[in-house]
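step: validate -> pass
step: tokenize input -> pass
step: predict -> running
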Amino acid sequence: MNNKYYPVWKYYICQLYSITAVLFKRISDKNIIEGIRKQDGNILNWLYDNYFQTVRNYVIKNCGTTEDVSDVFQDSIIILYSQITGDNLNLTTDLKGYFYGIARNVWNAQLRKKRKTTELDIDLPDELAHEETDAPMFERIVSRAFQKLKPDRQTILTLYSDGYTYEEIAVKMNLKNEIYARRKKYLSKEALIELVKEDPEYQEYLRYRK
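step: predict -> pass
step: emit ->
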């Protein structure tokens, strides 16, 4: 090999080794945080290779798309960077778990925005569906029925309509697990439907729809 090209060859070999080492070796949380603070491209690539799949699994499992995954991951990176540079990082677990928590909060917030189309979105059956022309009557009936529900049933339907996951509802309402939350939400919705049907204005509503 011509000696005059050796320094260039050596330089690129060193660069390749450096990149490979960063991508495939385990890096301490402290070094990752410093890398993010400095916007180190190698660290950001490592973050993508090691954290992205966990975020993807959560978003896809919770009604998201591949496009949503990318958006959530990027937003989470921005939030983490802001916390690090603003000295607001309060790390109580390993960084991967902390980042997963950020991503989960980001996606859940987006879900709440998507699902909160009305003040009380309770997924009523077709027999109680309403057209725009009879919406005021329908809303009066549902509002009266909702006020007659027990407080805990009002709470779980409201949390669900706000976009909280069953896991989050279970925590907020001190339920045993998300299975109990699902069951309680189902029973609460059924109770609401029965109260709607018992409302004095309900029969008039049915006649109006015909």
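step: describe -> The chain has two domains: 25-115, 126-209.
step: cleanup -> pass
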